[in-house]
């Protein structure tokens, strides 16, 4: 894409947020969200003019809604405590926002819709929404927890025995297929998160 939204950060201080900027061909638009306790993770809404963000570095745990126009980006509103956790990541499907803690939020109403429950141990790292299979998978330490998207009921869990470090990103790779990236520079592909014994993983 020629235009991107970036959650800016510094490498020296805590909190590290430097706001959110919109860049066109590498050039930042003049309007920037520069809140001191700004989002550390962002995801687009159903419109290219709507962006959601979450501050995972402060105990306010602010979830914010922002708007994008030709001049840049500005904050619409925010709410603290809808869900909580340090260094969480968010992804979206339209205006439904999914956090790596398992929380699901209605972005238009700033309300919690439900939570996919995982064991309290382990580090929440990444979440992926599989629309084709109506599933949600959460990568936590070396385990993938798989849920029915609509009912929040657990379907399966997969232990990636060779994984080290913490998951930092995940993506679908076809119906029921999930790829997970770890901060140890490992990438694992689980071809079928429901029937792992029939397919194995790499």
Question: Keywords, please?
Answer:
mainly beta, four-stranded antiparallel β-sheet
Could you give a short description of this structure?
By secondary structure, this protein is mostly beta strands. It is 2% helix and 50% strand. The strands form five sheets. Strands 4-5-6-7 form a four-stranded antiparallel beta sheet, with no helix packed on it. A four-stranded antiparallel beta sheet has the order 8-9-10-11, with no helix packed on it. The chain has a four-stranded antiparallel beta sheet with strand order 12-13-14-15, with no helix packed on it.
Give an overview in words.
With 202 residues, the chain is mainly beta. The protein has one helix spanning 196-199; strands spanning 3-9, 17-24, 27-28, 41-44, 50-54, 62-69, 72-80, 90-93, 96-99, 103-106, 111-115, 124-130, 135-140, 143-148, 154-159, 167-172, 178-182, 187-190. The chain is 2% helix and 50% strand. It has a four-stranded antiparallel beta sheet with strand order 4-5-6-7, with no helix packed on it. The model is unreliable at 197-202 (pLDDT under 50).
Chain oligomer state: single chain
N-to-C span? 30 Å
Arrangement of strands in the largest sheet = 4-5-6-7
- Biggest beta-sheet profile: 4 strands, antiparallel
Q: Count the strands?
A: 18
- Regions with little confidence, pLDDT below 50 for 5+ residues: 197-202
List the secondary-structure elements in sequence, H or E.
EEEEEEEEEEEEEEEEEEH
Average of the residue pLDDT scores = 89
